Amino acid sequence: MRLTRFTDLALRVLMRLAVQEADLPTTREVAAGMQVPYTHTAKVVARLQHLGLIEARRGRGGGLALTASGRAASIGGVVRELEGAGDVVDCDGATPCPLRGACVLRGALRRAQEAFFAALDPLTVNDLVASPTGPLLLSLSGGSGAGTGGPTGGPT
To answer: Rounded to whole angstroms, how far apart are CA atoms 11 and 5?
Structure first.
């Protein structure tokens, strides 16, 4: 299964924010650091905010921050939410497949998709930024505080 660019960027935004402690980054800073368009990042940030995974603080000292529920969020749940419940193949599209009523492949692909999500279910955002990923992310983002340990961070 292949994730959409939107989901890929959303996971990277969550990981980036998970290692941030001080000097909350803005959406523009996150976009620049990941070398992706600001407009695309802004849409991702809005969706993650709507899901309660991040918060955007305005004004001086503002920026993006991961919420407690965002830090503990199941990656499988996040991916399911962002990718939607659609089938891997579109058997009922504009030109419906003539085999859709008796196709074994459709069921097998659905089970494979669920196995994919199930493999991600036990992972949390904190798990994704455990060492060695968290320290590397922090060095790439130019951050000063490591969010990969302590009471708000993940395991080291």
So the answer is: 10
